[in-house]
């Protein structure tokens, strides 16, 4: 692949991923990875996606800072921080292919069910800290094994019928901290190569443009459209794990 073609593929993948992440709050790796992992080796694609994802998460947290619910999210985050190291250990010592396949199937089935259920879920409070921490732990564990830390918290919010601002306020801080922690763990074992740093620099224009477009779209869509987008992304992400 020529340098120009590689740049276009890189920019297109990053732009598509950050538009979706800016709009929905997650699924950057599912969208961008569907392209980048077929073009770049995993040793380059994975840290590149993590770095780009952290930037878009930081932008989301800043722009939507008035909606962020850090106090409630801290319970999810505490659980997630316990789950990620376990996931990294399992990745290094156990064949996790069956788990990824099973989790992808469950996420896909839930998304299909939720898209076609007859009535929307009623808004319910999630006051149990132990359950929130357990969901956070599961998200950290799953995120370390599948690169989808936001899947379980997003499903949890959908089950409770949360509107889009409340869902973003809970899930966004959680995903941002999980990704930053995972990147820090990765960097403690290996350094970023010069090629990854160059690719990251080349992706910055697409990163900035896609983030702006995604956040703009989030402010303009209604609750029903946001719900369908979230469920559609869960379905896509789950199918990516299965296929």
Outline of the structure:
With 243 residues, the chain is mainly α. It has helices at residues 3-24, 28-36, 42-63, 70-93, 97-116, 129-146, 151-159, 164-189, 194-220, 223-242.
Structural write-up:
- The protein is mainly α and 243 residues long.
- The chain has one domain (3-242).
- The chain has ten helices and no strands.
Uncertain runs with pLDDT below 50, 5 residues or more? none
How many E strands?
0
Morphology = globular
What's the overall average pLDDT, rounded? 85
Distance between the termini: 26 Å
Number of domains: 1
- Biggest sheet details: none
Keywords:
about 240 residues, mainly alpha, 10 helices, about 0% strand
Could you outline the blueprint of secondary structure elements for this entry?
Blueprint: H1 3-24, H2 28-36, H3 42-63, H4 70-93, H5 97-116, H6 129-146, H7 151-159, H8 164-189, H9 194-220, H10 223-242
Helix pairs in contact: 1-2, 1-3, 1-9, 2-3, 3-8, 3-9, 4-6, 4-8, 5-10, 6-7, 7-10
